[in-house]
Amino acid sequence: MLQHRPRRASAALLLCLFTAGCASTTGKAGIAPDRTDGLVYVISEGTPEFKVTKPDPVAGGAGAAAGAVGGVIGGLIVWGVVYAITKATDKDNDRALTLAPQDALAWLRPRIIRNLEAEATLAGARWIDGAPVKEAPGRVLTLRLDKWGLRADKSDSDAFLPVVAVTATLVKDSERLWHGECETRREHATSPLHTLAELGANNNGRLRDVITRALEVCADELTARFLGRAAPEPREPGKVEVKVTGKSLGDIEAVMLGTRETPGLAAGRFEARFSELALTNPDLVTLQRLFRESMTGPGESELKLDGTLDGRRFQAKLERNSAGRARLKFEGLTFAAEPDVDTFLDAFARPGLRRVELEGEAGGRRVKRSRP
């Protein structure tokens, strides 16, 4: 029988202390609606450099780190680990990870304005994206981009989290009516986290998506504080344990991947072991799909299968770290020819893969392959 035993999720506090700072949003309890009546101009400022913070292989101190990585502009020691603060360039992949601060502010202002325009209690306000004019005086909401960039994840130094910090201030004449701050947190990141190469692909397309998402979260939290409401707190899903013997591969696929109406275990955190399977060579297609679709998800998870393939023992294992990136290993699989091995492995070459290894047979010969 299936046995689901929820386990208490690990505390996210220690993670956010390391990754992007635990500060979420701060400020007063909220602004009185009558203090926003009339024109409110929304402007932005701040041109911080886009920075990438990553572990330095030299552990001799911040001074050593400063000389070890090309483009280093400073050093940082967190929990005894040396970090290099670099300009936003991935030297290894010769790929510039650079975005203009104006882009971030251009994404941030419309989101804030849309949020506030949708609020019924602020119906007396008219929000204008632009600088105030003398002919039509009003209040001014200033959004300042304090910092932005990427930071390596603690559990996987090849994976990066977005770093965004914004300060918002509402002023009428010289009186400050409201002030709030927002900084991204580890819990807000979407799994899987990406490598610098993945972020820089397609002319920084994925990087823009990641930063835009971080700015949207920050804008939504600032809006909640502005209205005097509690900002939504993301919750890490609990881990589910499953141990099953003698089920079919089709049943296992249903449990792990679910349906359109009901998500499977792979959509959350899990520790699943399925033993004593009896597979044949055609089942390799389903096995490949099962592990490929279980690769990415929120947080640490593990999937193990063992049994026989055409009468020979096999094992298959997937380990997903807290960054949502997976390491896979297959032992005892048999293929008709060596190109079939490459076809099997190539299916796992997607964002979120750390490494996939295979030891088995192809055309009667022992083979050993890995990606990347």
Task: List its traits.
372 residues; 2 domains; nine-stranded mixed sheet; 23% helix; elongated
Helix-strand layout with pairing:
Blueprint: E1 5-7, H1 13-18, E2 25-27, E3 38-45, E4 50-55, H2 62-66, E5 72-78, E6 81-87, E7 89-90, E8 95-96, H3 101-117, E9 125-129, E10 139-152, E11 160-172, E12 175-183, H4 196-226, E13 239-245, H5 249-257, E14 269-279, H6 284-293, E15 301-309, E16 312-320, E17 326-335, H7 338-346, E18 353-362, E19 365-371
Parallel strand pairs: 3-9, 3-10, 4-10, 13-14, 14-15, 17-18
Antiparallel strand pairs: 1-13, 2-12, 4-6, 5-6, 7-8, 10-11, 11-12, 15-16, 16-17, 18-19
Helix pairs in contact: 3-4, 5-6
Structural description of this entry:
With 372 residues, the protein is an alpha/beta fold. It has two domains: 179 residues, Rossmann fold, CATH 3.40.50; 133 residues, no CATH class. The chain contains seven helices and 19 strands. Strands 2, 3, 4, 5, 6, 9, 10, 11 and 12 form a nine-stranded mixed beta sheet that branches. Helix 3 runs parallel beside helix 4 and helix 5 runs parallel beside helix 6.
